Amino acid sequence: MRRPSVLVIDDEYINLAILEEILKDQYDVTIMESGVDAISLLSREGLLPDVILLDIRMPQMNGFEVLEYLKSKDYLKEIPVIFITAENSEINGLAAGAADFIQKPFNPQVVKLRVDNQVRLKIYTGSLEELLRKKTEELSQIQGRIIEEMASIIEYRNLESGSHVKRTSELTLLLIKHMIEHSEYAQELIDQNPSALVKAVPLHDVGKIIIPDYILLKPGRLTADEFEIMKRHTTAGKKIAESILAEGDSQYLRHCMDICHYHHENFDGTGYPAGLGGKDIPLSARIVSVVDVYDALTSNRVYKSAYTHEKALQIIEEETGTKFDPVIVKCFFGIGGSFL
């Protein structure tokens, strides 16, 4: 088992020697005689120390300047810094981000206790963070299973084969990969975590759980009143996603809410529920809009028979610029042979 490590930074060798002697039985101690050298060491080494003891008064680069550098590189998130001082600088040091203080002249028991406390606190914090990570992962898995079950319920209520969710997820993945390689939306997709977007696709119609069967399963055209009720599934889906995923991954939640809420918006602003148009419609929803319509066109539904692949692409092409984003349609046509 690796012993905890301590980096001691002080321009006076006698102080370095004393602190090394106090700590060497319990810790792996590295000593540096200047802040500049210590920063160079931290930049080179892959393994960071568990604690840093840092003198305040040093030439070239004083302790506060070293601490500011550590803060700028986010080292303070990982490494507690204990200031070494003969002055009454505690308030300024704590305000700057130091975890504790050791006064000169050194009391060996105090030095050991202060370093021990910081190491124990770091280990305890790390354990809590690992526990939180595991619990968050477990929560995410539970949320995922809930979403999958709800999506399956919607599919079977629609009297579908249960494969709509699978097909739309696979098509979305193919489309996103093509868009990252061949479209102006490449960087936007990368920034938005494309894997979270694909993971969100199964939830797109979850709001249909509130729609009565007589509307959801109606074989003919919906009346105006029935269509108004059907449109509510977008807003309901957003609320359901938010309630299930409120404690989960923020990008995943954002994609789920946007896709549920806006995948029936049209590029020309004539869709629902908000009448958004163009790039005001979230990119995730614009992508799922194309995929969802293609799968609906090429599948048997209670109100129609399946169209051929060619006929579905023709319909999508005719509605490019009105219903669909032209850039996304171009990319969708670019993967046309991948899902025959």
UniProtKB/TrEMBL annotation:
GO biological process, one term: phosphorelay signal transduction system
Pfam families: HD_5 (PF13487), Response_reg (PF00072)
Annotated signal sequence range: none
Highest taxon in the source lineage: Bacteria
SMART domains xref list: HDc, REC
Gene3D superfamilies: 3.40.50.2300, Hypothetical protein af1432
Matches recorded under InterPro entries: CheY-like_superfamily, Cyclic_di-GMP/3'3'-cGAMP_PDE, HD/PDEase_dom, HD_GYP_dom, Sig_transdc_resp-reg_receiver
HD-GYP domain residues: 139-340
Residue span, Response regulatory domain: 5-119
Positions bearing 4-aspartylphosphate: D55
Xref: PROSITE patterns: HD_GYP (PS51832), RESPONSE_REGULATORY (PS50110)
Keywords: Phosphoprotein
Function summary: May play the central regulatory role in sporulation. It may be an element of the effector pathway responsible for the activation of sporulation genes in response to nutritional stress. Spo0A may act in concert with spo0H (a sigma factor) to control the expression of some genes that are critical to the sporulation process.
Protein name: Stage 0 sporulation protein A homolog
Organism: Faecalicatena contorta
